[in-house]
Design brief:
Distance between the termini: 15 Å
Number of strands: 5
Radius of gyration: 13 Å
Shape: globular
Structural class: alpha/beta
Strand order of the largest sheet: 1-5-2-4-3
Number of helices: 4
């Protein structure tokens, strides 16, 4: 699994979804995580769930909203690290807190 962090306060959500769609069209399994304060992906990706935390699928891309770290996502899916089988995890971050909680220092790309 390769983690790619998109760091900053500028609106990146649309671009991250487009990149994720390109990767899935190339045959990769992709998870997009919106860990920003405003969570704009909630408005881009249609869902009927009015929950604080959820994972939904949009055009073959899994989108996680409202989670503070990858372990919470694994617990939500009842999966351990061996079953967490994404090729790419694209993380939208706008705070130093998200940078620490998602262990971005170990990420493949920033």
């Amino acid at each position: 699994m390769k983690k790619v962090a998109f760091i900053g306060s500028y609106d990146k959500a649309d671009m991250i979804i487009y990149i994720a769609k390109i990767l899935t069209n190339m045959g990769s399994k992709v998870l997009v995580i919106d860990s920003t304060v405003l969570q704009k992906t909630r408005y881009i990706v249609p869902t009927m769930k009015a929950l604080k935390q959820y994972i939904t699928t949009y055009e073959k891309v899994d989108v996680a909203i409202g989670f503070e770290n990858i372990n919470q996502i694994k617990e939500y899916n009842n999966k351990n690290s061996e079953e967490f089988d994404y090729d790419y995890v694209l993380i939208d971050i706008d705070s130093s807190r998200g940078y620490v909680y998602y262990q971005i220092k170990a990420a493949d790309k920033k």
